[in-house]
Amino acid sequence: MSDLTGLRVLITGAGRGLGRACAEAVVDAGGDVIAVARSAADLDDLAAARPGQIEPWVMDVADSAFHARVAALPRLDGFVNNAGFNRPQPFTQVDVETLDGMLALNVRAAFLTAQAAAKVMVAQGSGVIVNMTSQMGHVGSPGRTVYCLTKHALEGLTKAAAVELAPHGVRVVSLAPTFIETPMTAPMLADEAFGRFVLDRIPLGRVGTAAEVAGACVFLLSPAASLVTGSSLLVDGGWTAQ
């Protein structure tokens, strides 16, 4: 039921971290991946790890040329809307550059890319959009007002788009991880006080792995999740259950 054989999946932010883990998991489940990132070196390394099943696109997801290229695809079975970033700052000290940058990538680019993917999927009458959100799309946390804002926005996009696209055979879901061991989170988790703050809030007592998120991603893209749309799959060790 989680077999993705023959499916074509586009993944943004695929060069490293969760995006790369999802790309590798999709290929291992039988799918073919269009991997998008700004780093050619990262994509070359990914393609070498999964030869013949990765189509690398060295592009900026905020670029209109990228959105046009997605919309022009003849077929697209899955889209993992993963590109994004976080720059933690206290609410009263958030600078405009940080606010605008995170809104531009985490919300605007994510919306426009999902819109482009949806055009292809509606035309073919099938497809799955997986918005990579966060547990921070369900709760709040100190120093993360902008990140929470952007991830709550994506959760709203998931619900609205799911309702609108369901009659066209297109599912839209969110995948919401807790803190995961990635290059982006490593410096934050290395701080002893912050690491304790995180672990104290996860009932399972540990942060997650990229493989655990990737496995959930494959499930959401697969026929096993054929009745799942408009909802968010929390891979958070119980953080939001409290």
Automatic annotation (TrEMBL):
GO biological process: glucose metabolic process; xylulose metabolic process
Pfam families xref list: adh_short_C2
Keyword NADP: yes
Annotated InterPro entries: L-xylulose/Carbonyl_redctase, NAD(P)-bd_dom_sf, SDR_fam
Broadest EC class assigned to this enzyme: oxidoreductase
A GO term, aspect molecular function: D-xylose 1-dehydrogenase (NAD+) activity
Enzyme Commission number, as recorded: 1.1.1.175
Record-given protein name: D-xylose 1-dehydrogenase
Keywords: NADP
Family according to the record: Belongs to the short-chain dehydrogenases/reductases (SDR) family.
